[in-house]
Amino acid sequence: MIYYFLFIKNHPAEKLMSVYWSNYFMPLNWDAFHWLNYKIWEVFCGFIYTPFSRLNWILGSLILASSIIALIGVVISAIRRKSINLYSISIVLPFIIHLSLSALSKFPFAPGRLTIYLAIPL
User: Fold this and answer.
1) Lowest-confidence range among 6-20, 79-93, 108-122?
2) Whole domain around residue 69: which residue ranges?
3) What is the dihedral of CA 94, 99, 101, 106, to 10 degrees?
4) Cβ-based neighbours of 84, under 8 Å, separated by 6 or more
5) Most buried residue, 7, 15, 91, 102, by most Cβ within 10 Å?
6) Is residue 43, in this structure, part of any structural domain at all?
7) Which pLDDT tens digit goes with each residue over 19-34?
8) Residue 10 belongs to a domain
């Protein structure tokens, strides 16, 4: 938060960057479900490049499926234990915060921007 107020708020390029990243901010209407579906697919498959388009789709689907299974595991773990452990929070909360910031047009939900979360499970 401090970083935002010191360096981002009222920055001279703030309007330019908002226009540049406008396709990556989550809309606040019923189109959000379609947008989220498309962006999640783009995030999980957008970085896989092979000469074979079918292989791109298969690898992206496997990564997406494993992520969904992990999310289901976090939910089941929380239900069985009747509480949420710190590891579950550290996996799910950053994405919820990221989507919230995207809906507020403060941080774009783009493929390259999500790599910051790779260090969390470590």
Assistant:
1) 108-122
2) 28-119
3) 120
4) 78
5) 102
6) yes
7) 888 888 888 888 888 8
8) no
